[in-house]
Amino acid sequence: MFSTYFIHLAVIITIFIILAVSLNLVLGYTGMINLGHIAFYGIGAYASAILTISHQFNFLLAVFCGGLIASACGWFLTVITNRLKGDYFALGTMGFSFVSYAFFLNWTSLTRGPLGIPGIPRPKIFGYIIRTNGEYLLFSLLVAILVILFLYLLTRSRYGKLLEAVRDDVVGVQMLGKNIFRLKYQAMMISAFIAAIAGALYGHYISFIDPSTFYLNDIVIVLTIVIVGGLASLRGSIVGALIITLIPEALRFVQMPPSMIGPMRQIVYALLLILILMYRPKGLFGRVDLE
Protein backbone atom coordinates (compact mmCIF):
# COMPACT_ATOMS: atom_id res chain seq x y z
CA MET A 1 0.00 0.00 0.00
CA PHE A 2 2.75 2.43 0.99
CA SER A 3 4.82 1.61 -2.08
CA THR A 4 1.81 2.32 -4.31
CA TYR A 5 1.23 5.60 -2.50
CA PHE A 6 4.85 6.72 -2.80
CA ILE A 7 4.98 5.79 -6.48
CA HIS A 8 1.86 7.89 -7.06
CA LEU A 9 3.42 10.76 -5.12
CA ALA A 10 6.62 10.50 -7.16
CA VAL A 11 4.67 10.68 -10.43
CA ILE A 12 2.89 13.84 -9.25
CA ILE A 13 6.24 15.34 -8.22
CA THR A 14 7.76 14.72 -11.66
CA ILE A 15 4.76 16.38 -13.31
CA PHE A 16 5.05 19.40 -10.99
CA ILE A 17 8.78 19.60 -11.74
CA ILE A 18 8.06 19.83 -15.47
CA LEU A 19 5.38 22.45 -14.86
CA ALA A 20 7.59 24.46 -12.50
CA VAL A 21 10.66 24.57 -14.75
CA SER A 22 8.47 25.66 -17.64
CA LEU A 23 7.10 28.55 -15.56
CA ASN A 24 10.60 29.43 -14.37
CA LEU A 25 11.67 30.00 -17.98
CA VAL A 26 9.33 32.98 -18.34
CA LEU A 27 9.16 34.09 -14.71
CA GLY A 28 12.75 33.58 -13.58
CA TYR A 29 14.83 33.83 -16.73
CA THR A 30 12.78 36.28 -18.82
CA GLY A 31 11.15 38.28 -16.01
CA MET A 32 7.54 37.87 -17.17
CA ILE A 33 5.15 37.34 -14.24
CA ASN A 34 2.79 34.91 -15.93
CA LEU A 35 -0.18 34.08 -13.70
CA GLY A 36 -1.97 32.35 -16.55
CA HIS A 37 0.51 29.50 -16.85
CA ILE A 38 -1.97 26.96 -15.52
CA ALA A 39 -4.07 27.54 -18.66
CA PHE A 40 -1.34 25.97 -20.82
CA TYR A 41 -1.25 23.01 -18.45
CA GLY A 42 -5.01 22.58 -18.91
CA ILE A 43 -4.84 23.04 -22.68
CA GLY A 44 -2.28 20.25 -22.92
CA ALA A 45 -4.40 17.94 -20.78
CA TYR A 46 -7.66 18.62 -22.62
CA ALA A 47 -6.13 18.54 -26.10
CA SER A 48 -4.36 15.24 -25.53
CA ALA A 49 -7.42 13.67 -23.89
CA ILE A 50 -9.83 14.77 -26.64
CA LEU A 51 -7.51 13.79 -29.49
CA THR A 52 -6.77 10.32 -28.11
CA ILE A 53 -10.37 9.53 -27.11
CA SER A 54 -12.46 11.17 -29.83
CA HIS A 55 -10.04 11.09 -32.76
CA GLN A 56 -7.88 8.05 -31.93
CA PHE A 57 -4.64 10.02 -32.16
CA ASN A 58 -1.40 8.37 -31.16
CA PHE A 59 -0.31 9.55 -27.69
CA LEU A 60 2.88 11.26 -28.85
CA LEU A 61 1.07 13.01 -31.71
CA ALA A 62 -1.72 14.12 -29.36
CA VAL A 63 0.81 15.56 -26.90
CA PHE A 64 2.64 17.33 -29.73
CA CYS A 65 -0.61 18.83 -31.03
CA GLY A 66 -1.56 19.92 -27.52
CA GLY A 67 1.82 21.58 -27.20
CA LEU A 68 1.32 23.42 -30.49
CA ILE A 69 -2.11 24.67 -29.40
CA ALA A 70 -0.70 25.84 -26.07
CA SER A 71 2.21 27.55 -27.85
CA ALA A 72 -0.20 29.36 -30.16
CA CYS A 73 -2.14 30.53 -27.10
CA GLY A 74 1.15 31.62 -25.53
CA TRP A 75 1.94 33.70 -28.59
CA PHE A 76 -1.56 35.23 -28.50
CA LEU A 77 -1.24 36.00 -24.78
CA THR A 78 2.07 37.78 -25.39
CA VAL A 79 0.56 39.82 -28.22
CA ILE A 80 -2.43 41.06 -26.22
CA THR A 81 -0.33 41.85 -23.13
CA ASN A 82 2.67 43.29 -24.97
CA ARG A 83 2.06 46.86 -23.80
CA LEU A 84 1.45 45.86 -20.19
CA LYS A 85 4.24 46.01 -17.64
CA GLY A 86 4.80 44.66 -14.14
CA ASP A 87 1.65 44.14 -12.09
CA TYR A 88 -0.58 45.00 -15.05
CA PHE A 89 1.03 42.25 -17.10
CA ALA A 90 0.51 39.81 -14.24
CA LEU A 91 -3.17 40.75 -13.98
CA GLY A 92 -3.57 40.42 -17.74
CA THR A 93 -2.18 36.90 -17.70
CA MET A 94 -4.39 36.02 -14.74
CA GLY A 95 -7.36 37.13 -16.82
CA PHE A 96 -6.24 34.66 -19.47
CA SER A 97 -6.39 31.84 -16.91
CA PHE A 98 -9.98 32.86 -16.06
CA VAL A 99 -10.91 32.84 -19.75
CA SER A 100 -9.40 29.39 -20.27
CA TYR A 101 -11.23 28.08 -17.20
CA ALA A 102 -14.48 29.48 -18.61
CA PHE A 103 -13.83 27.62 -21.87
CA PHE A 104 -13.11 24.36 -20.05
CA LEU A 105 -16.27 24.80 -17.98
CA ASN A 106 -18.74 26.03 -20.61
CA TRP A 107 -17.70 24.48 -23.92
CA THR A 108 -19.61 21.36 -22.99
CA SER A 109 -19.79 19.91 -26.50
CA LEU A 110 -15.99 19.62 -26.49
CA THR A 111 -14.90 19.39 -22.84
CA ARG A 112 -18.07 17.99 -21.18
CA GLY A 113 -17.95 21.01 -18.87
CA PRO A 114 -18.10 20.29 -15.12
CA LEU A 115 -18.62 16.57 -15.82
CA GLY A 116 -15.04 16.34 -17.02
CA ILE A 117 -13.51 13.79 -19.38
CA PRO A 118 -13.26 10.25 -17.97
CA GLY A 119 -11.54 7.20 -19.41
CA ILE A 120 -8.39 8.90 -20.68
CA PRO A 121 -6.18 6.02 -21.87
CA ARG A 122 -2.69 5.29 -20.65
CA PRO A 123 0.08 6.27 -23.09
CA LYS A 124 0.91 3.87 -25.89
CA ILE A 125 4.51 4.37 -27.04
CA PHE A 126 5.54 2.53 -30.20
CA GLY A 127 2.96 -0.16 -29.55
CA TYR A 128 3.75 -0.55 -25.83
CA ILE A 129 1.07 0.51 -23.34
CA ILE A 130 2.30 1.95 -20.04
CA ARG A 131 -0.07 0.15 -17.69
CA THR A 132 1.35 0.20 -14.16
CA ASN A 133 2.10 3.23 -12.01
CA GLY A 134 5.69 2.07 -11.67
CA GLU A 135 6.12 2.16 -15.44
CA TYR A 136 4.42 5.54 -15.56
CA LEU A 137 6.87 6.85 -12.97
CA LEU A 138 9.83 5.79 -15.12
CA PHE A 139 8.21 7.35 -18.18
CA SER A 140 7.37 10.65 -16.47
CA LEU A 141 10.85 10.75 -14.90
CA LEU A 142 12.42 10.29 -18.34
CA VAL A 143 10.29 13.12 -19.74
CA ALA A 144 11.25 15.36 -16.79
CA ILE A 145 14.96 14.64 -17.32
CA LEU A 146 14.71 15.43 -21.04
CA VAL A 147 12.83 18.68 -20.33
CA ILE A 148 15.35 19.75 -17.68
CA LEU A 149 18.27 18.91 -19.99
CA PHE A 150 16.69 20.91 -22.81
CA LEU A 151 16.10 23.93 -20.57
CA TYR A 152 19.58 23.64 -19.06
CA LEU A 153 21.17 23.81 -22.50
CA LEU A 154 18.79 26.58 -23.57
CA THR A 155 19.42 28.80 -20.55
CA ARG A 156 23.20 28.31 -20.78
CA SER A 157 23.23 29.23 -24.47
CA ARG A 158 23.62 32.67 -26.02
CA TYR A 159 19.86 32.70 -26.53
CA GLY A 160 19.32 32.05 -22.83
CA LYS A 161 21.58 34.97 -21.97
CA LEU A 162 19.44 37.17 -24.23
CA LEU A 163 16.35 36.11 -22.27
CA GLU A 164 18.07 37.08 -19.03
CA ALA A 165 19.02 40.40 -20.60
CA VAL A 166 15.34 40.99 -21.40
CA ARG A 167 14.69 40.56 -17.68
CA ASP A 168 17.58 42.75 -16.51
CA ASP A 169 18.23 45.39 -19.18
CA VAL A 170 15.62 45.90 -21.90
CA VAL A 171 17.32 49.04 -23.19
CA GLY A 172 20.62 47.23 -23.55
CA VAL A 173 18.99 44.44 -25.56
CA GLN A 174 17.34 47.00 -27.83
CA MET A 175 20.70 48.70 -28.38
CA LEU A 176 22.04 45.36 -29.59
CA GLY A 177 19.33 45.42 -32.24
CA LYS A 178 17.36 42.53 -30.78
CA ASN A 179 13.58 42.33 -31.00
CA ILE A 180 12.29 42.32 -27.41
CA PHE A 181 8.78 41.26 -28.39
CA ARG A 182 10.08 38.31 -30.40
CA LEU A 183 12.21 37.09 -27.51
CA LYS A 184 9.25 37.38 -25.13
CA TYR A 185 6.78 35.49 -27.29
CA GLN A 186 9.36 32.81 -28.10
CA ALA A 187 10.00 32.25 -24.39
CA MET A 188 6.27 32.17 -23.71
CA MET A 189 5.68 29.67 -26.52
CA ILE A 190 8.45 27.34 -25.33
CA SER A 191 7.17 27.58 -21.77
CA ALA A 192 3.59 26.90 -22.88
CA PHE A 193 4.62 23.85 -24.92
CA ILE A 194 6.40 22.29 -21.94
CA ALA A 195 3.49 23.09 -19.61
CA ALA A 196 1.19 21.33 -22.09
CA ILE A 197 3.40 18.25 -21.90
CA ALA A 198 2.98 18.27 -18.11
CA GLY A 199 -0.79 18.60 -18.53
CA ALA A 200 -0.94 15.66 -20.93
CA LEU A 201 1.13 13.52 -18.55
CA TYR A 202 -1.25 14.39 -15.72
CA GLY A 203 -4.41 13.65 -17.70
CA HIS A 204 -3.21 10.29 -19.01
CA TYR A 205 -2.00 9.31 -15.55
CA ILE A 206 -5.12 10.21 -13.56
CA SER A 207 -7.37 9.18 -16.51
CA PHE A 208 -9.85 11.94 -15.64
CA ILE A 209 -9.75 15.72 -15.93
CA ASP A 210 -12.25 18.46 -15.16
CA PRO A 211 -12.03 22.29 -15.06
CA SER A 212 -11.41 22.44 -11.30
CA THR A 213 -7.97 20.91 -11.84
CA PHE A 214 -6.82 23.94 -13.81
CA TYR A 215 -7.94 26.83 -11.65
CA LEU A 216 -6.27 29.22 -9.19
CA ASN A 217 -5.31 26.56 -6.65
CA ASP A 218 -2.78 24.96 -8.99
CA ILE A 219 -1.21 28.21 -10.16
CA VAL A 220 -0.67 29.12 -6.49
CA ILE A 221 1.08 25.77 -5.95
CA VAL A 222 3.33 26.15 -9.00
CA LEU A 223 4.18 29.77 -8.18
CA THR A 224 5.06 28.70 -4.65
CA ILE A 225 7.32 25.95 -6.02
CA VAL A 226 9.19 28.40 -8.26
CA ILE A 227 9.51 31.13 -5.61
CA VAL A 228 10.57 28.74 -2.83
CA GLY A 229 13.09 27.00 -5.09
CA GLY A 230 14.34 30.26 -6.54
CA LEU A 231 13.93 32.24 -9.74
CA ALA A 232 16.21 31.46 -12.68
CA SER A 233 17.25 28.16 -11.10
CA LEU A 234 16.27 24.79 -12.55
CA ARG A 235 17.72 23.07 -9.50
CA GLY A 236 15.55 25.32 -7.35
CA SER A 237 12.40 24.29 -9.20
CA ILE A 238 13.24 20.62 -8.65
CA VAL A 239 13.88 21.08 -4.93
CA GLY A 240 10.87 23.38 -4.62
CA ALA A 241 8.61 20.73 -6.17
CA LEU A 242 9.85 18.18 -3.65
CA ILE A 243 9.32 20.52 -0.69
CA ILE A 244 5.94 21.89 -1.71
CA THR A 245 4.60 18.44 -2.53
CA LEU A 246 5.99 16.47 0.39
CA ILE A 247 5.49 18.84 3.34
CA PRO A 248 1.72 19.37 2.86
CA GLU A 249 1.38 15.67 1.99
CA ALA A 250 2.61 14.87 5.50
CA LEU A 251 -0.70 16.26 6.78
CA ARG A 252 -2.29 12.99 5.66
CA PHE A 253 -0.64 11.33 8.65
CA VAL A 254 -1.77 13.97 11.16
CA GLN A 255 -4.94 13.26 13.13
CA MET A 256 -7.46 15.83 11.98
CA PRO A 257 -10.91 15.87 10.36
CA PRO A 258 -10.68 15.13 6.61
CA SER A 259 -12.47 18.41 5.88
CA MET A 260 -9.52 20.28 7.44
CA ILE A 261 -6.77 18.74 5.32
CA GLY A 262 -7.42 20.94 2.26
CA PRO A 263 -7.49 24.26 4.17
CA MET A 264 -4.43 23.23 6.20
CA ARG A 265 -2.50 22.60 2.99
CA GLN A 266 -3.32 26.11 1.82
CA ILE A 267 -2.09 27.46 5.15
CA VAL A 268 1.17 25.53 4.77
CA TYR A 269 1.68 26.91 1.24
CA ALA A 270 1.04 30.44 2.49
CA LEU A 271 3.40 30.10 5.45
CA LEU A 272 6.20 28.69 3.30
CA LEU A 273 5.76 31.50 0.80
CA ILE A 274 5.75 34.20 3.51
CA LEU A 275 8.84 32.77 5.23
CA ILE A 276 10.78 32.52 1.98
CA LEU A 277 9.87 36.06 0.92
CA MET A 278 10.84 37.40 4.36
CA TYR A 279 14.12 35.58 4.94
CA ARG A 280 15.29 34.39 1.49
CA PRO A 281 13.82 36.70 -1.16
CA LYS A 282 15.78 34.89 -3.87
CA GLY A 283 14.46 31.50 -2.76
CA LEU A 284 16.66 28.55 -1.86
CA PHE A 285 18.77 28.57 -5.03
CA GLY A 286 17.55 31.63 -6.91
CA ARG A 287 19.77 34.22 -8.58
CA VAL A 288 17.27 37.09 -8.78
CA ASP A 289 14.59 38.60 -6.55
CA LEU A 290 10.91 38.52 -7.42
CA GLU A 291 10.18 42.16 -8.30
UniProtKB/TrEMBL annotation:
Q: Which GO terms describe its molecular function?
A: branched-chain amino acid transmembrane transporter activity
* Cellular component, GO annotation: plasma membrane
CDD domains, alphabetically? TM_PBP1_LivM_like
Its subcellular locations are: Cell membrane
Arranged from A to Z, the UniProt key words for this protein are: Cell membrane, Membrane, Transmembrane, Transmembrane helix
Q: Which parts pass through the membrane?
A: 6-27, 34-53, 59-81, 88-107, 136-154, 185-207, 219-247, 267-285
Q: What is its main location?
A: membrane
InterPro entries, per the entry: ABC_transp_permease (IPR001851), LivM-like (IPR043428)
Is the keyword Transmembrane assigned to this protein? yes
**Pfam families documented for this protein:** BPD_transp_2
Taxonomic superkingdom: Bacteria
Membrane topology, from the record: Multi-pass membrane protein
Q: What is this protein called?
A: Branched-chain amino acid ABC transporter permease
